[in-house]
Specification:
globular, 2 domains, about 15% strand, Rna Polymerase Sigma Factor, Chain: A, 11 helices, Rossmann fold, 8-stranded mixed β-sheet
């Protein structure tokens, strides 16, 4: 997408990269084993206050990256949450210091399965360790410490990003004053796991998958990855949104019924699948969807012990038309937190755009974020 920053943008930004763990001092993983070296790509917006008490960490969703706001120095593309972050926006960079980082396991600058395994000199491929949510959080906690911040004013995210925010605040409440969990889940349903299973199967049965060593073979499982993205994208939109946008509108090039692209919605999904190939890696898709499958932070007798001892201020939000992580998912989070005596604010936001609503400029959604974060900053200043 070409263009220039608008008046409310943070302007031209640069993605930075830092090595947070080494082979000698590796990241210890939840399931056992270690990972090192570990690099993390990140961006920051705004200015850290003298007391380092205005920092907000933004966690991205499944296929996001560190570029959340402004316009990228190289590609000149707007960040994925540019409508939310910037001067005068809900995450006002004249008031907040905002940090956005790429997940480990990803493919946009942080260490992941497409990174070089120092033991072999080749891409990790399927030799990369299976990660858990706590591993993602551990890498980002190390980044926050690297930046000289001991306590975040807030951590927030949507979808997988909301899951990270939930895990972070539950495990390390002394480090997080406020947690905003948006369009997320504390435990995937069988249906959600099934969607990801089919997506992974599409990728892994692509003839160019090469048992995960496709990079060494000089190929890419493009067909499987594009199908995975097409199917996932359907779940991110509501039926009303698809009907409003496309209905049963035929594709302009379709003249006779057949098995090509006969309808406008088919053309749209095909475009989404093809565009995805330019920016995402198939192995990262496998690994990060698996992280979501196994996420279940309320399991265990002591799961809420830390946050009971040090309560966090919570905002949990859902969207009325989201059927991927609908309001029932958010209500489960709210009930569990309330039973642990947590101060929780819950909002179901009216929107016709389904799960993708958390990425869009929906007025009551942005107004709620603005009010909650403004109050959090005011309370921190007391």
């Amino acid at each position: 997408m070409a263009g220039t920053p608008d008046a409310g943008s943070v302007g031209i930004v640069r993605t930075q990269n830092v090595r947070l763990f080494t082979a000698e001092n590796p990241l210890v993983l939840e399931r056992g084993g270690t990972l090192g070296p570990v690099d993390v790509a990140y961006e920051t917006y705004g200015t850290l206050s003298p007391g380092a008490d205005n920092a907000v960490f933004v966690c991205h969703a499944l296929t996001g990256d560190a570029h959340a706001a402004g316009w990228h120095e190289g590609a000149r593309r707007p960040g994925w949450w540019d409508n939310l972050i910037g001067p005068g926006k809900p995450l006002d960079t004249d008031r907040f210091f905002v940090i956005s980082a790429n997940l480990i396991g990803g493919c946009q600058g942080s260490t992941g399965p497409s990174s070089t395994n120092p033991a072999t000199g080749q891409a990790y491929g399927l030799g990369f360790p299976v990660l858990m949510m706590r591993d993602l959080v551990a890498a980002h906690r190390a980044l926050v410490a690297h930046l000289g911040i001991t306590r975040l004013l807030a951590v927030l995210g949507g979808s997988l990003g909301g899951m990270q925010a939930l895990q972070w605040a539950l495990d390390h409440p002394l480090e997080v004053a406020n947690a905003l969990v948006i369009a997320a889940s504390s435990r995937l349903t069988a249906q959600n796991i099934a969607f990801s299973a089919v997506a992974r199967r599409a990728i892994m049965t692509d003839p160019h998958f090469e048992e995960g060593a496709y990079a060494s073979a000089g190929v890419n499982p493009d067909t499987g990855l594009s199908i995975a993205r097409m199917m996932a994208h359907i779940t991110y939109l509501s039926e009303d949104a698809l009907t409003e946008k496309f209905g049963r509108q035929p594709h302009p090039d379709a003249h006779e019924p057949g098995f090509g692209i006969d309808f406008a919605v088919e053309s749209y999904l095909d475009h989404q699948g093809q565009a995805f190939l330019e920016r995402f890696d198939a192995l990262s898709y496998l690994y990060l969807t698996r992280v979501m499958d196994y996420f279940d932070p309320f399991t265990g007798a002591d799961a809420l012990a830390a946050v009971r001892a040090c309560p966090v201020n919570w905002l949990v939000m859902s969207f009325a038309s989201d059927w991927r992580f609908g309001t029932d998912h958010s209500r489960r989070i709210v009930r569990t937190l309330e039973h642990a005596d947590q101060p929780v604010t819950f909002r179901e936001i009216p929107s016709s755009w389904g799960h993708d609503s958390f990425l869009l400029e929906v007025e009551p959604y942005h107004a709620t974020l603005r009010a909650f974060l403004g109050r959090a900053l005011a309370e921190a200043a007391r």
